């Protein structure tokens, strides 16, 4: 026995709202899980690089410093204080096509 069109529409409307709600709930949960994973799995690289300790005098000048655990002098410096020639030298040695690719140099990967 075939259900009438009115009965089929009624069932379809009755099932549409809960199914759409469940789909929206699943999508929201999936997006929240993805966002949580992205936030928790993103490493903070400043935690892994031990820096040198700097001791300042009362006028703000560096009075003394200590080397990092690997025997190197490492400290943070703002990008605008770095000599542009040093940036050019690093880019020439490390990635000569730095300004030509979007972040990954597929030509260098081969």
TrEMBL record:
Q: Which InterPro entries match?
A: Glyco_trans_51, Lysozyme-like_dom_sf, PBP_transglycosylase
Domain Glycosyl transferase family span(s) in chain numbering: 73-109
Q: Name one Pfam family in it.
A: Transgly
In terms of Gene3D superfamilies, this protein maps to: Biosynthetic peptidoglycan transglycosylase-like (1.10.3810.10)
The record ties this protein, via SUPFAM superfamilies, to: Lysozyme-like
The source's superkingdom equals Bacteria
* Protein name per the record: Transglycosylase domain-containing protein
What broad taxonomic lineage does this protein's source fall under?
Bacteria, Pseudomonadati, Pseudomonadota, Gammaproteobacteria, Aeromonadales
């Amino acid at each position: 026995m075939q259900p009438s069109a009115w009965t089929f529409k009624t069932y379809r409307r009755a099932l549409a709202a809960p199914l759409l709600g469940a789909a929206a709930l699943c999508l929201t949960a999936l997006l929240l899980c993805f966002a949580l994973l992205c936030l928790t799995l993103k490493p903070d690289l400043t935690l892994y690089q031990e820096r040198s300790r700097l001791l300042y005098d009362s006028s703000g000048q560096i009075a003394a410093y200590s080397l990092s655990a690997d025997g190197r002098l490492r400290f943070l410096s703002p990008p605008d204080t770095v000599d542009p020639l040093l940036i050019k030298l690093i880019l020439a040695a490390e990635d000569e096509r730095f300004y030509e690719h979007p972040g990954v140099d597929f030509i260098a990967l081969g």
